[in-house]
Fold this sequence. Notes:
The chain is α+β, with helices and mostly antiparallel strands. The chain folds into two domains: 3-128; 175-226, Winged helix-like DNA-binding domain superfamily/Winged helix DNA-binding domain (Arc Repressor Mutant, subunit A). The protein is 45% helix and 14% strand. It has nine helices and six strands. The chain has helices spanning 26-39, 44-54, 72-85, 107-122, 127-137, 144-153, 168-178, 194-201, 205-212; strands at 3-10, 17-23, 60-68, 182-184, 190-191, 224-226. It has a three-stranded antiparallel β-sheet with strand order 2-1-3, with helices on both faces. A three-stranded antiparallel β-sheet has the order 5-4-6. A hairpin with a 5-residue loop joins β4 and β5. The longest helix is centred in the middle third of the chain and has 16 residues, at 107-122.
Amino acid sequence: MKTGIIYGLYHPITGEIRYIGKTIRPDKRLNEHIQKANKGPKYPVYNWIRKLFKEGLKPELEIIETSNEDQLAELEVFYITKAKEFGWRLLNSTDGGEGNSGHIYTEEQRQKFRDAWVKRKLVPISDETRKKYSLVHKGKPKTVEQRIKMSEAAKGAKNHNFGKRPSQESIDKARLKTCKPVICLTTGQTFISCREAGKILHIDSSGISKVCRSILPAVRGYIFRYL
């Protein structure tokens, strides 16, 4: 009897599985998906693959389980159903299995899915992976359509910060990130910003900034420099 696999197509950088399928030709299945995406059918999974193409990427295939050919349809239904229950963002247009449903799965099958779930979903994306994903998109100009979508997604209640007021601690942290520390060469004092120096020495902070940028030689007898 022939054997086949249940497989997942996943994002090559984030590792997120976006499609679950079955095949008895695992060595050719990924290329078949890529070829279909190039031909242009407007199914969600192929729209996703074409989006990866635009980013200079392509999906990768991972074997979830190997089984006899006559069990693949039932297993496909099981994995797709459970993945959706766990909140996976699958792009499958059907529940798989070519109409097979109502199958009772063994505890061993359920445990295999739990193991796959833990491996794929609960392991956080590493900082290294995030940096790789950022580098892929760095410097790539966004289309007008992309900018409109990003703008709409950030408006009103769609924005994850909608209705939230930042704490004073958050405000202080944000200020520190944008502040340049300065030193007063006249007194030897250091300050976290021109504003702080101005408050303590009773000097206009814009004047301190101009001295630091060598626009003015000094302000009220004080000489400052950025650290």
